């Protein structure tokens, strides 16, 4: 891989790692609260819908999810290599495709909201 | 190349079990599965929210309320904190050393700044969600 391209791939991976480190513990805790039937008041339909209708809600969620997916995809690619899978081109295409689909779905649903 | 190069016998699936550092490395790498899982769980939530009525959102919330998910989330939270969040913060001064003139900023301050920023951001997210 050319050096310039590698810098972009790794830069996005690092950005995703940073953003998931900061945001995902809170996200997981919110899912835990939902799972234990202690859904926080602003996650009721009308409030969460209103928040996600605004620009800031959409922008934050899109940035977080797209970078998180890229980060996970890149790491999963390395995991495949670590487990002895040597078809890196195939693995890379597959994991980045899933990340791209997730990103497109995020954009689509945010657009619908 | 010699005619009979020595190839160390190595298991493809368990090589990291030999060494504590390798084990921690593999535990860190595995956080990518959790990141992927929670990203897509959030996307499912967005799909329910885009359904246009409270009903689809409420049924999404209801679908999440079972003991399996409680245990899974609790496990994920601890695993993620140890092997992603805290690990990432500890690595930050190595990946991005800060220097002012001749002096290097001590690792401790960079790591501490990450923890403080994380606490503030998490509190802000909980406030947005209406936890308190």
Question: What's the short story on this structure?
Answer:
By secondary structure, chain A is mostly helical. Chain A has four helices and no strands. Chain B has a domain at 15-96: Fumarate reductase/succinate dehydrogenase, transmembrane subunit (3 helical TM bundles of succinate and fumarate reductases).
Blueprint (SSEs and pairs):
The complex is a heterodimer of chains A (113) and B (132).
Chain A: H1 3-35, H2 45-53, H3 55-82, H4 88-112
Helix pairs in contact in A: 1-3, 3-4
Chain B: H1 20-29, H2 31-49, H3 54-63, H4 67-95, E1 99-100, E2 103-104, H5 107-129
Antiparallel strand pairs in B: 1-2
Helix pairs in contact in B: 2-3, 4-5
Structural commentary:
Chain A is an all-alpha fold. Chain A has a single domain (3-112), classed as Fumarate reductase/succinate dehydrogenase, transmembrane subunit (3 helical TM bundles of succinate and fumarate reductases, Up-down Bundle). Chain A contains 4 helices and no strands. Chain A has helices at residues 3-35, 45-53, 55-82, 88-112. Chain A starts with a helix and ends with a helix. In chain B, helix 2 (31-49) runs antiparallel to helix 3 and helix 4 packs antiparallel against helix 5. Chain B is flat, with a radius of gyration of 22 Å. The mean pLDDT of chain B is 94. In chain B, strand 1 (99-100) and strand 2 form a beta hairpin. The relative contact order of chain B is 0.06. Chains A and B meet through helix 1, helix 2, helix 3 and helix 4 of A and helix 2, helix 3, helix 4 and helix 5 of B.
């Amino acid at each position: 891989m050319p050096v310039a391209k590698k810098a972009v791939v790794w830069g996005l991976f690092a950005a995703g790692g940073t953003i998931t480190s900061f945001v995902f513990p809170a996200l997981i805790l919110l899912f835990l609260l939902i799972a234990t039937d202690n859904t926080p008041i602003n996650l009721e339909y009308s409030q969460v819908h209103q928040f996600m209708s605004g620009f800031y809600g959409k922008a934050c969620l899109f940035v977080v999810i797209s970078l998180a997916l890229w980060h996970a995809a890149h790491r999963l690619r390395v995991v495949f290599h670590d487990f002895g899978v040597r078809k890196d081109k195939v693995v890379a295409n597959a994991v980045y495709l899933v990340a791209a689909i997730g990103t497109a779905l995020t954009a689509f649903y945010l657009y619908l909201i | 190349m010699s005619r009979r190069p020595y190839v160390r016998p190595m298991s493809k699936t368990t090589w990291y079990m030999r060494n504590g550092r390798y084990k921690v490395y593999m535990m860190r790498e595995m956080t990518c599965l959790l990141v992927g899982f929670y990203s897509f769980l959030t996307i499912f939530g967005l799909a329910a929210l885009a359904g246009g009525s409270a009903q689809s959102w409420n049924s999404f919330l209801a679908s999440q309320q079972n003991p399996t998910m409680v245990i899974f989330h609790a496990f994920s939270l601890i695993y993620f904190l140890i092997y992603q969040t805290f690990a990432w913060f500890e690595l930050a001064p190595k990946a991005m050393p800060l220097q002012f003139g001749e002096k290097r900023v001590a690792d401790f301050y960079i790591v501490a700044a990450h923890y403080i920023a994380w606490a503030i951001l998490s509190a802000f997210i909980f406030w947005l969600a209406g936890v308190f």
